[in-house]
Amino acid sequence: MKKYLMCMIAGMMSLIGCGVHEPQGELLSVEYTHSGTMAGYIYEGRVKQNPDGRYVLTAMKENYGPLYRKQISKEAVDSFRQIIIDEKMYKYKEHYRPAMEVLDGEGWHFAAKFSDGTRLYSSGSNAWPRGNGLGRIQGYLQRLIADADSIVEETEEE
Prior knowledge:
Blueprint: H1 2-15, E1 27-35, E2 41-49, E3 55-60, E4 67-72, H2 74-86, E5 95-96, E6 107-114, E7 119-125, H3 133-145, E8 150-151
Parallel strand pairs: 5-7
Antiparallel strand pairs: 1-2, 1-6, 2-3, 3-4, 4-8, 6-7
Helix pairs in contact: 2-3
């Protein structure tokens, strides 16, 4: 009887998402894009760790604007990691879509990579996850890039 009860509990736990774990490693990269029906991104921003260990932020200051680049601190990257943890973005589904067909609208993409090997990826078309994780990521990207003066040329983009 105990075995049966334990199996039932384990099965129920798997249905409510107990297999999703909080990343334990340091954040190595994060990116967020928001697109609409027009060509180009409404918003684009990313942080990557260079081979030399420095972190570089490439982002728009405003919607549909040019990309700017600047170096940021490890503490700033740790703040992105904290947003991901606080908003439980590691629990996001791989893809969000509305219940009914939408022929135009908006889409988004979020990805993050951690030193423990964890990789997060989520996207959506006219549907979003609960909470404000994506908004907080974009807001922080914009705050950090606000004082940048180095515009990224199209040939420099990765």
